[in-house]
């Protein structure tokens, strides 16, 4: 029983980071209807940037988003204008081919620059753990979950309270109507893609406080975030958080009770089940 | 509102094709500034396609659109909106996840920054009589309210030319009378030029100084409401079709 609760706790905390990653994906998919298979590789890229800055300047991973956030935003905007913009009116197949291409490119690029072996930073400031009622909670995971929730709240406020946020929501609701009310769709899309990518910088910084990175991680995070998004459905930010926690907990449980290698199996089982039983997700609006 | 005023919109030889279908065929017309004009025609005559082509949603295959002296052919919709043209939609396209106030606010951002946007929003909401529902979600509204929200959102962009695509469809007589009153007031007090696409003849005849008739993508007549209702070609193409039903 203790093992179950312990791994549920760990998984739930990790799930908050998954939710943050998925929020970026959800912005890109929900607003622009672009199926972005490269999203997980932006997470991987963010982790390498974190590693690079952390090891070069000796900065703790938790502080790196100050640099990596604008950097990933820029990468996202450039990627949008260079390759995504041209595929918007094309078939889904074209978009998938293009984003899978981007995914492969990012992976090859990181392999070239940082080789294939896993990289990690020295211990973060937020190491150690606290003990509550006999359970052991890693401080790095607890803080990661907290920062993720804060970041999700921040994005939520940005979308609901600011002019660019409203433009993004209007364009996501009805693109034609929004453009005829003066909303520049390319600008809005670039912003959504940039912001969606920049959020991986926060996640990447947090993940690097307790994980290592290697070039193959992108696929795992990419599919994981698609699974969380499918479970949550489009349109509900709290739903995203809950779904992230569910997926994180399920993953942790399968690892501790069954086999560490079963984590992906369970995640994809959830993915398939949701698409089969409830395609609009648990909290989706349609 | 004189007939001799400068045209705010000049459309020349506009053609839009979809495959073999010529939805808008070589249409030329001028909308004088300050007037209320109507665009009528049977179903499938190309009225909505015509609107979509002049507002930048579609790129015309041939022809030119000049708005306030500037060639806007092929310009993206948001730029056309900035220049002062806005519209409502036949099938309402209100932002379902937003409240009425927020929806109008999106329109008002066209000419206002965060500091004075709410003044515009309040003004438009009161002009269109939306105070009571301003905090409701658009997705929860009925058709009559939605049409008015769309009108408010378009007005909030502060257009010089406002295109209304079947704004009267599905409204009761009372709602229609209210809408016509708002439109007249808008035209008179804020000198907004209006172009209404309409099936509801009562609205077109009661509101418009000049009417254009489209049939199968072609402009077949232009004139005052009396001239149009006595034009044999129009009766055959449009009114006649109704009379038979």
Please, could you describe this protein's structure?
- Chain A is an all-alpha fold.
- Chain A has one domain (2-277).
- Chain A has helices spanning 2-32, 39-57, 65-84, 92-114, 139-161, 163-173, 175-180, 185-207, 217-232, 237-258, 263-277, and strands spanning 129-132, 135-138.
- Chain A is globular, with a radius of gyration of 18 Å.
- Chain B is built from nine helices and ten strands.
- In chain B, the strands form two sheets. Chain B has a six-stranded mixed β-sheet, sandwiched between helices. Chain B has a four-stranded antiparallel β-sheet with strand order 2-1-4-5, covered by helices on one side.
- In chain B, helix 3 (100-108) runs parallel beside helix 5 and helix 4 crosses helix 5.
- Chain B is globular, with a radius of gyration of 18 Å.
- The termini of chain B are far apart.
- The model of chain B has no long low-confidence stretch (mean pLDDT 90).
- At the A-B interface, helix 6 and helix 7 of A face helix 2, helix 3 and helix 5 of B.
Topology:
The complex is a heterodimer of chains A (286) and B (245).
Chain A: H1 2-32, H2 39-57, H3 65-84, H4 92-114, E1 129-132, E2 135-138, H5 139-161, H6 163-173, H7 175-180, H8 185-207, H9 217-232, H10 237-258, H11 263-277
Helix pairs in contact in A: 1-5, 1-8, 1-9, 1-10, 2-3, 2-4, 2-8, 2-9, 3-8, 5-6, 5-8, 6-8, 9-10, 9-11, 10-11
Chain B: E1 7-18, E2 21-32, E3 36-40, H1 47-54, E4 62-67, E5 70-71, H2 77-83, E6 85-87, H3 100-108, H4 117-127, H5 143-156, E7 161-165, H6 173-189, E8 193-197, H7 201-207, E9 210-215, E10 218-223, H8 225-230, H9 232-244
Parallel strand pairs in B: 3-8, 3-9, 6-7, 7-8
Antiparallel strand pairs in B: 1-2, 1-4, 4-5, 9-10
Helix pairs in contact in B: 3-4, 3-5, 4-5
Quaternary organisation: heterodimer
The percent of residues in helical segments of chain A reads over 70%
Sum up the overall morphology of chain A in one term: globular
Spatial shape of chain B: globular
